[in-house]
Model the fold of this input.
Amino acid sequence: MNLFGGIASVVGFRIWEDHHGWITMVGRQRRDIPTPLARGRDRFEGWRRTRKVGARIPDMLWSLAAKLAEGHGLNRTASASVLGLAYYVLKRRVEARNSDSASVSPAFIELSPPPWQPRANVLSSSGRIPGVRTH
Done:
């Protein structure tokens, strides 16, 4: 095995050397997927086998996908080898999930100013009352 073989095995890639001596790194194998992602993939594959053509992905599966994306990253979760979802659609679902949980506590609280009370006997050094204009 060449020098890259040991390094690549550490990061989860396979090395191929063709008959010309060119070295090719092939991505992670299907078995290298973490268990939660593999279970999620199995649930999606099961649904895809039994669904009617054109049926929308159920909210339960979208919720699962968003939860997995929060733990394992959007790109890895959405990829064809895992769940086979559109990246930006999953991203919107994750953002919506995060905004729902954040909406529990208010982000803005309106405070009323204290009632205005005129000050009595306040004169400036010029002998004028501040805020009063004379013509």
Q: What stands out?
A: Confidence is low (pLDDT under 50) at residues 4-11.
